[in-house]
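Posted in: Structural Biology > Protein-Ligand Complexes

Title: Requesting predicted complex, zinc ion in pocket

I'd be grateful if someone could produce the 3D structure tokens for the following input. Sequence and ligand are given below.
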Amino acid sequence: MELLKNYARGFVKNVKNAHWRGLTEAACVFPCPGCREGLSEQGWNCFCDECLGRILRITGPHCPGCGGPQDGILAYCSKCMRIGVRPWRDAYAVMELDPFGLELVHRYKYGGQVELARAFAALGAELIRRSGAEFDVIAPVPLHWTRYCTRGFNQAHLFCLLLGRELGIPVRRLLVRRRATRRQARLNREQRLNNLTDAFALRRGAAVVGRKILLVDDVLTTGATLTEACRPLTGAEVSIMVIGRR
Ligand SMILES: [Zn+2]
Ligand SMILES: [Zn+2]
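-- Reply #1 --
Done. Output follows.
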């Protein structure tokens, strides 16, 4: 017993030792999840400077409809002007889905590279901090359980959890997916909206009235999914965030 205590005491002393700490930190450095080579100054699983240079981040004034860059004198971009009124107050997009952005999101969603979630979340948190916006709660757009089973994880939820941790904002699953829907990719906007009618409902007991909610999804194309997901959140002030927009 005494031997064990001594061992424990020695271990604690070692951990407190600066040299030892340096060693463990050195052993915990992970390469950048973008190129799998470079190292980030920001910590584990963040993008290296080279990847940050390649990613088309939206840093200037953004469109409150899609989070993309403003392309005229109006707040809304031309694409959002064509689509019409959005049910959310503001929109944030971490990156444009140019070929590199698209590759990153594909590797995250279908390639099993889940560690990209932290790199995306670090950039998303930076975007929110810079905007000065404040939220009571962050909520993911849910997947139907059948889709969850085939993919193994909800990419929006994982991104959400890490974003919430970065920002110190609670993450709650406020919505449930009532039914499985057809894949959206090959449908136009009208078909997408029909496909999604009544797809989402408020989770039992979820309090949303009067709260500032940041609703999170992985990708915004036409915004049909997020539009439908906003429907049960009546009485709340909703803004949206996505990893990528196109
Ligand atoms: Zn990199
Ligand atoms: Zn827009």
